[in-house]
């Protein structure tokens, strides 16, 4: 996987995407980053914190935040 590091300019979730068949609300900045990094002719496996961490589950969110350094280190590439 490749990890995305992006600026969350606003905590307003005005856009949406489908991740593994599950609809997720995302910020406009993440939506724009995903469109920018999208490859038209091949699959790309991306990790971004907002859709990959259940923000409504405080336990999961705090556990995942502690793991973010490892997540970024193990990524094949970090896209900024």
TrEMBL record:
<dbReference type="InterPro" id="IPR010730">
    <property type="entry name" value="HET"/>
</dbReference>
<protein>
    <recommendedName>
        <fullName>Heterokaryon incompatibility domain-containing protein</fullName>
    </recommendedName>
</protein>
<dbReference type="Pfam" id="PF06985">
    <property type="entry name" value="HET"/>
</dbReference>
<dbReference type="InterPro" id="IPR052895">
    <property type="entry name" value="HetReg/Transcr_Mod"/>
</dbReference>
<feature type="domain" description="Heterokaryon incompatibility">
    <location>
        <begin position="1"/>
        <end position="80"/>
    </location>
</feature>
């Amino acid at each position: 996987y490749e990890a995305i590091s992006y600026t969350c300019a606003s905590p307003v979730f005005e856009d949406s995407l489908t991740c593994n068949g599950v609809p997720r609300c995302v910020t406009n900045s993440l939506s724009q980053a995903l469109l920018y990094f999208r490859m038209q002719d091949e699959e790309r496996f991306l990790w971004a914190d907002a859709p990959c961490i259940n923000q409504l589950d405080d336990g999961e969110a705090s556990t995942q935040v502690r793991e973010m350094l490892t997540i970024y280190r193990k990524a094949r590439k970090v896209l900024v």
